[in-house]
Amino acid sequence: MADTDFSAEIDSLRHTLASIEQVSDLDRIKADIAELEQQASAPDLWDDPEEAQKVTSKLSHRQTDLKRITSLESRIEDLETMVELAAEEDEPSLLDDANQELTSIRKALEELEVVTLLSGEYDQRDAVVTIRAGAGGVDAADFAETLMRMYLRWAEQRGWSTKVMDTSYAEEAGLKSVTFEVNAPFAFGTLSVEAGTHRLVRISPFDNQGRRQTSFAAVEVVPLIESDDSIEIPESEIKVDVFRSSGPGGQSVNTTDSAVRMTHLPTGIVVSMQNEKSQIQNRAAALRVLQSRLLLLRKAEEDAKKKEMAGDVKASWGDQMRSYVLNPYQMVKDLRTGHEEGNPSSVFDGHIDDFVDAGIRWRAEQVKAAQED
C-alpha cells in the first residue's frame, strides 16, 4: 500500500516539475547562461566594473535558477530509488526518510511554482520599499520601524541583500518613513504583493493608561530603475534641496550638507536620501528612486486606461490589506487572501513567506479572472 502511495506521489511531483520547466523555459535559461558566460570571459570585462558586476550577478542568478530545477529532477529520482530499496529490504526507517524527503521536495516545488506566477513586466527587478507611518501617532511610527525590521529579516533569511537608503526618525520613537532597496531576482514581483496599508491593534506601550491603540503604516514597493529604462526627467521639473543628515533625536551624523531632498514638480513626488557619504551619491540615489516611482506611475496610468477600456474589474486592491492583532487576541490576517497565523511574534521576526506566497497566488487568480471577464 505504501509503495502505491509513493508511486502516485512521485508521479504527481514529476507532473508538477514538468509544468514548472515548461513555464520557466529551460532552453531560454540555458541560452542566457551561455551568452552571459561569453560576456563574462571577455578580457576587457572589468574595464567597466559596474557593468562587470551586473554581468557576473546575472550569470550567477541564472545558474542558480537552472540548478534549482535540475537538482529537483535528481532528488525525485533519488526518492524513487529510496522507496524501491525500502521495499526490497523491508526497512521502515528508509520509508520514514522517504516521507521526509517527499515533504521537502513538495515544499521546494511549491516555492518554484510561486516564482512562475511572477510574469509582470517588472517582476524580475530589484525592489525599492518605502514604509511610512500613518494614523496612530507614536504607535504608528513604532509600527513602521517594526515593519522595516520584519522585511529586512525576511530578506536576510532568503539570502537577499538589502540597503537602507533613507530614514526619517520620529521624535519620540520609531520612524516617520524609511526607504530601502532589496537586491535579488524577482524582488519586486515578490514584494509588490506587500504594498498597501497595514493595521496594528495592541495595548500601546506608549499609553500610561494601558489603552488599546489602532495604528497604521503604508508600504510602497516600486521596481528599481535600470540604465536602459527610458525615463528622462528634465532638470526644469526637479527641485533639489540639500541639508545635513541626522540620526535619532536630531543627533548630527554628518557635518556637511550631504543629504538630498528631490521634488518632482509635475507630480509632487518627493524623495529624500541621506545614507550615502556624499551629496553626489545621495543625489544619484534619489534620482534613481524618483525614476523608479515615475516608471511605476506610468505603468499605473497605462493599466488604468486598459481597465477603463475593459470596464470595471472586481477584487481590486483595498487600502487595508493586513491586520496584526496583539490584543485582545493574537492573530495576523491578510484581508485579501484570508491567510492568517496565530503567532505575530514569528511574523514580525520575518517569517512571512506564507503570506507572500498566498498574495502572489491571489493576485494571479485576480488577473486570470479579469482576463476571462
Automatic annotation (TrEMBL):
Taxonomy, superkingdom: Bacteria
UniProt main location, coarse: cytoplasm
Keywords: Coiled coil, Cytoplasm, Methylation, Protein biosynthesis
GO cellular component terms, semicolon-separated: cytoplasm
Regions crossing the membrane: none
Protein localization: Cytoplasm
Post-translational modification as stated in the protein's UniProt record: Methylated by PrmC. Methylation increases the termination efficiency of RF2.
Cross-referenced PROSITE patterns: RF_PROK_I
Positions bearing N5-methylglutamine: 251
Record keyword ATP-binding present: no
Alphabetized InterPro entries for the sequence: PCRF, Pep_chain_release_fac_I, Pep_chain_release_fac_I_sf, PrfB
Start and end residues of each Prokaryotic-type class I peptide chain release factors domain: 244-260
GO molecular function terms attached to this record: translation release factor activity, codon specific
SMART domains: PCRF (SM00937)
UniProt similarity note: Belongs to the prokaryotic/mitochondrial release factor family.
Record function comment: Peptide chain release factor 2 directs the termination of translation in response to the peptide chain termination codons UGA and UAA.
Protein name, per record: Peptide chain release factor 2
Organism of derivation: Micrococcus yunnanensis
Underlying gene: prfB
